[in-house]
Design a protein that fits this description.
Blueprint (H helix, E strand, L loop, with lengths): L2 H18 L3 H28 L3 H12 L5 H27 L66 E5 L10 H15 L8 E3 L8 H4 L7 E2 L6 E3 L2 H4 L21 E3 L15 H4 L6 E2 L1 E3 L14 E2 L7 E4 L2
The structure holds calcium ion (4 copies).
Amino acid sequence: MKPWSFDVTLGVAASVALASGCRAEAAWQEALEISVTWESESESMSDASSGSESDTETTSSTEGETTTTGGPGGTMSESESDATTATTSTTTSDPTNTSEPADCGDGDVQPGEQCDDGNDDNNDECTNQCKHWMCGDGYVGPTEECDDGNKNDDDGCNTACARDRVVFVTSKAYPGNLSGISGATSACVAAASSGGLENPSSYLPWLSDSEMSPSGFFFHSEGRYVLPDMITVVADDWNDLADGELHNPIDMTEYAVLLDGGPVWSNTLPWGDRYTESEHCEGWTVNGAEPGRRGYSLATDEIWTAIEAPNPCSSYAHLYCFEQE
Ligand SMILES: [Ca+2]
Ligand SMILES: [Ca+2]
Ligand SMILES: [Ca+2]
Ligand SMILES: [Ca+2]
């Protein structure tokens, strides 16, 4: 660098040391160390710049260093230094420019990209930001039911990217002859359709016979189970539903009207397994004195699905209908 700069620095250091009036010796020592370091840096820079230059210029540079006051050598040295700096910065920025810049969407994975499928589809495994799909990114990925990009579990799309599903109790009551679980399914679908619910064909009845039970043939949702008002929460997810305690009773019909309490055919335990082997109105096909198990629509404990004693299949009861996938 410049001898005149060297002098100025020493001068400033000295002034500071004297003004402070303490530890002057240490300050001087520090100033000298700085100047020595600076000078050696200056020399190495000069060496580097002169390495590829002619002998004449090297001599000129040396002359500049030996001059302690400003002069042609100092000025020359400064201009050389600038040139070196300019060259250096150009040289260091060149590799960045020559390496391929990340171009999301070109189909090739470059540094800074997690993936690049080269398409405009945000709902596949690679988003248009060239990131792997994930729950919370605001795009509905391959196995996500929804993704609203927030941390709110109570807005219809939770942080597991699972949506709400509707459960209701039918407004109608039926005797035990439901034409089997398939007939009860038709009743649920018809009710959901009459109530104007979405996905009416996806509803299934909460019923067990000797062959099947909801724990086996129901979709086990990671999302909430809500009443048709889409507000009242019955359970946070399948596991919460199956733990024997509901947040709120399933007491709202497909028309989003509260049912003022009523029995509900089920023969099903809270966790979805069959309650008894035989008390299911013979597969929900008879309406005589045969026994059938029921629940009660205003209960939030296990009674919601499992009243202690059976009732004759000639009696009338409602159905719980659950939206599936
Ligand atoms: Ca790319
Ligand atoms: Ca994509
Ligand atoms: Ca997502
Ligand atoms: Ca949410």
